[in-house]
Amino acid sequence: MADMSQTPGGQDPVALFERHRAQLIRDRMTANLLLLALFIGFLAWSIWIADFMPDRLASGVPRIFEYFGSVMPSFDTDVLFDGRNAEGKFPPGSIGFWYNDFWKYITLIWETILMALTATLLGTGLAVVLSFLAARNTTPAGWVGTIARRFLEFCRGVPEILFALVLVFWVGIGPLAGVLAITIHAAGALGKLFSEVVENASMRPVDGMKAVGGSWFEQMRYGILPQVLPNFTSYALWRFEINVRASAVVGFVGAGGIGTELSHTISFYSDDRVTAVLLLVVLLVTAIDLLSERARHSLIGKEALK
Amino acid sequence: MLEFKGLTKQFRDNVAVKPATLTIPDGQMVGIIGRSGAGKSTLLRMINRLNEPSGGQMLFDGRDITALKGRDLRQWRNECAMVFQQFNLVGRLDVLTNVMSGRLFHHGFVTSMAGMFSAKERAFAIRALDRLGMAHTALQQTDTLSGGQMQRVAIARALVQEPRIMLADEPIASLDPLNAKVVMDALRAINQEDGLTVICNLHTLDTARQYCDRVIGMQDGVIVFDGTAKELTDKAAREIYGAEAEEAFSEAMTSTSLRPGDKPAAEAPRVVN
Amino acid sequence: MSTLNFAAISQADIDAARKRHPKAFGDPLVTTLKAASWAFVVVYLAWSLGFFEIGKLLNNADRAVQLLSRMVVWQDMATWQYANIYKGIAQTIAMAFVGTMLGTLFALGLAFLAARNTMPVGVIRHAVRRLLDVFRGIDQIVWGLVFVRAVGLGPLAGVLAIWISDMGNLAKLYSEAIENIDRKQVEGVRATGADTGRIIRYGYLPQILPVFISLSLYSFESSTRSATILGLVGAGGIGMIIIERFRAGLFDQVAFVVLNVLVVIAIIDWGSGLIRKRFIGERGH
Lengths: 306, 273, 285
Fold this sequence. Notes:
The structure holds three protein chains of three kinds. By secondary structure, chain A is mostly helical. Helices cover about 75% and strands about 0% of the residues of chain A. Chain A folds into two domains: about 5-50; about 100-305, MetI-like (MetI-like fold), CATH 1.10.3720.10. In chain B, a hairpin with a 2-residue loop joins β9 (about 215-220) and β10. In chain B, α5 packs across α6. The model of chain B is unreliable at about 250-255 and about 260-273 (pLDDT under 50). Chain C has two domains: about 1-60, no CATH class; about 80-285, MetI-like (MetI-like fold, Orthogonal Bundle), CATH 1.10.3720.10. Chain C is built from twelve helices and no strands. Chain C has helices spanning about 10-20, 30-50, 55-60, 60-70, 80-115, 120-135, 140-150, 155-180, 185-190, 195-230, 240-245, 250-285. In chain C, α11 runs antiparallel to α12 (about 250-285). The chains are: A mainly alpha, B alpha/beta, C mainly alpha. Chains A and C meet through α1, α2, α4, α6 and α7 of A and α2, α4, α5, α6 and α7 of C.
């Protein structure tokens, strides 16, 4: 049976296999090496352009630790929970001293939440309208769809803080600029997502509504909206989480909320006030995330039960 | 009276409906038969302008339907109700709202957007559902119903439009034989009791023969037969169906071997009044 | 003669229908609740817009017109210092890349400490997770400002900000990927008598590597977007040029820069889509 091991070409199959394998490995190695070289080249270029040099790091890194050391609160166990003293001040080392401006922060955090809520409601409303105009299957006319899609791309392409910068110039320093900036960006981001949901909706109910003599609005309201509403709600809740984060930072350019205080504190002080306000922001963001996650889950749960 | 004068429909490179000229008097029950792709659906959907005709004219009581626009067009669509093969109901709304949506043409912008329906509309919708034996499902979410039930809801929605003409695009193609009979019986009852013109696309020959006063046969976009059910001989039918003849005949054997007005099926529609 | 006539529906008919199907006429409680919640939304919006002084939008309409017109009319285009602009954009991309690479490296280690199946000690796992929450909970631009205070103005602060927030995000996503792996493959490797290092190399890595690469690629994309604004707080990149020229009232140049940034971001999204298709798609895990 010796000739069983011979291929018709008269070659040893083991040798043939080995040769193929070697070729395959060589090809893959070359491609991988090329990619690795590209990757390393890009990394080297990036390190050079970003000025991420050892000397910069050597001088910079110790300063990071120094800075974080200086902004940590220092507690004194003797007076940790002490109230105000005779002069109406908290003793250094107490929590009261650390959170001297607690009520100011709380007011600003409240404002931040309101900004996010208003912006989410307005942005969602705008996004609903724009998504029906932008979705390819529901757009009333081709050119309307194109304009709506370009507009949505612009709104979500420009970061909210840039809109805020411009709007602060327009309406002045204060939360209005922030609300409007976040509204515009959220409308862009949600409008894109919504229009994708609409494009995946069944068009049969729309045909049905058309046949009863429904206008475009009625076709959308009765044919599409009931299908997409659960997804819309879930996306809007998720957007609220993002908007809370955004409204906490638009204050960096003067657009209201806790961000103004945050930026002021970080820029002008390097003591425990920085961690005090940062901690509150982290708590705010985490709490909103948890709440919204729970709301979304109960929403999905309700859907699944139906 | 509905008149077609050389009505045509052309898609990019093929002609779906070649110039069609027809007159359908009021109160007739018309069945359009032909194999799939013969242009039945296109012809039917041109009547309520879900498909735009590419040429020719369509008149209803002397009014030019092909020229209607905007609100006039929507009024015409409201006057000629349509029932679809896939029901085209809004699955996530309840049955009652689906039926009441047949009244939307009479609503203003605000009440229709807010989904506000009057007590009179609700009573009317319940009455329509009742006529099809579906009133007990009024508050169910529509996509929990079976196909046959959905089609009856769709007919109820068509009825609350108080239409002049009822169009039915393959109304029983997605249904089992029993439900098919229930739906066809309902359409026939509407035709006879309300005197509505019913124009119905049917894939199966036997159904057309049993239920329709008049049968129109289409082949490759051309009307090749127009006569009474009796005039539709097997030979004529074979010509209409061509290669699909055996299928059409054998389906006829299974799908609607029940004759209209035989013993009532379990869920046969009740006729109110 | 129609058996169904809307006009003929009398009050008696309505009452009869209501009697048989009382719920079909709307539960007054549900209707009221619905109306009340809509009313609440409307009242809230009206109140909050009043609270935020929406009127300022109209009062300063002339400023908006002035701003927009100066953004659209581009003047003295020869003096716009293009080299500066494109260097800024290049710096932004470089910052994002270095930051994402650093974040990926650190996240690789932290992810194994935060995943339930690779870190049995609950205390350490929870401590690492809370630390990651802090990294993610503080916005990248806030980290930017913090690092500007710590190491001074310039791209180093930006890189560090991207690094820390990417590390937080990626470590969380990586650890979820690790927790979701197929245990049977790991047990197969363990059954051969492999030590811990080999179990990770042959049991875990082949399963999670494609997911990791894909996540890091997404992270690079989103970092390029966010790095464009890090400069607003002085952390390097194109944002610094945007805010400098905005403060100087050179609105036409700001519009030009933003347009350029949008184009560059679109190109990066497109490119990374290609890479994803090539690699992750072909490896097909």
